[in-house]
Amino acid sequence: MQKLTIVIHTEEEFDWDGGFFQNNTSVTHHQELISLCEELLTFGHKIVFAMDYAFVNSKQGQQVIEHFKKCDSTQVEFAAHLHPWVNPPFDEPVNKVTSEVAEQYSYPGNLPLNLEKAK
Question: What pLDDT score does 1 carry?
Answer without folding.
Answer: 64
